[in-house]
């Protein structure tokens, strides 16, 4: 039976807790809350009620019939996290951690965001629960996701542009951690992915597992069987762990994570951590990183702000090394082609993150029999990316 992390927060040799002494008590407090409050029936009822009446769960499972016909191979099904309140899977985790923080007596949330979807989800939850909220965002990302910056401010959150380093998600995480260290008594750091020190990777995974549990039941009802392949994009990797977890013990189901190959794996402009990186320590965890020969974390690139991160969740590193999941990479250009294909065959504009998964699903489905099934986690909708997509495709439509 799959039981990870262990009591030290490890997934094999990955994960753990590599943090300053000042954070250890806060992490112990959070882990205690995870183990005692999350299973509490009253907490589960409150979370379920809000997931149903506020978030809009269960999200639909859509058979992408015209896309499947255009591809000419396996049937492709889409798990529609793009149809949640705020438009991405991020709201599942933000709501769960927001309720947990309130139970722990915290009055303030801090968060980091890359594509803005986690920031919007956190700002939304803070408004709903009556908590104050500060969101750190790399200056580069504030420009390419300016609509989401406005949405967060409209929801009452303070958005702090980060001008250090590469001015993207990695640097936003650094600033959020510094804020948390300084205000740990009344503040909860609402981490948005399956990254960071223990217990965050397990906490976020467990709050996102609802994606896979719903999809598994819905696919069985629709087809009477499990998928052959489950495909999801991977930056930090929360939507992927959310859908993978339900299928980890189903040996006949292949799990495929899709990273950002950016401008190509033969360049330095990519974010393919598991494909091109090697193990090291970042943001309190031991995992795969993009780093130079001296161990310095390098800048990465993706057209998708949400995949523009030099690390990855430690459970993904474990699944890669054990062979339970396979990780591949899709370029910016391939993701843009997937946006066009899904838009024109299904009337759905995917987020650029999700488009990476769609591109890989199409590639695999073409080589599979027509009775095979490919399940794709459509992690978010593309409204936030329209300006970026227009910039790259405006003259090519």
From TrEMBL:
Keyword annotations: Amino-acid biosynthesis, Aromatic amino acid biosynthesis, Lyase, Pyridoxal phosphate, Tryptophan biosynthesis
Metabolic or biological pathway: Amino-acid biosynthesis; L-tryptophan biosynthesis; L-tryptophan from chorismate: step 5/5
Pfam family, one: PALP
Reactions catalysed: (1S,2R)-1-C-(indol-3-yl)glycerol 3-phosphate + L-serine = D-glyceraldehyde 3-phosphate + L-tryptophan + H2O
Lineage top rank: taxon: Bacteria
PTM-bearing positions, type N6-(pyridoxal phosphate)lysine: 90
Enzyme class, broadest EC rank: lyase
Keyword Lyase: yes
GO cellular component, one term: cytoplasm
Enzyme Commission number, as recorded: 4.2.1.20
Chain ranges of the Tryptophan synthase beta chain-like PALP domain: 55-380
Keyword Amino-acid biosynthesis: yes
Gene3D superfamilies found in the cross-reference section: 3.40.50.1100
Essential cofactor(s): pyridoxal 5'-phosphate
GO molecular function: tryptophan synthase activity
Record-linked PANTHER family: TRYPTOPHAN SYNTHASE, TRYPTOPHAN SYNTHASE-RELATED
Family of the protein in this entry: Belongs to the TrpB family.
Function: The beta subunit is responsible for the synthesis of L-tryptophan from indole and L-serine.
Classification via HAMAP family: Trp_synth_beta (MF_00133)
Subunit structure: Tetramer of two alpha and two beta chains.
Name the UniProt record assigns to this protein: Tryptophan synthase beta chain
Organismal lineage: Bacteria, Bacillati, Bacillota, Bacilli, Bacillales
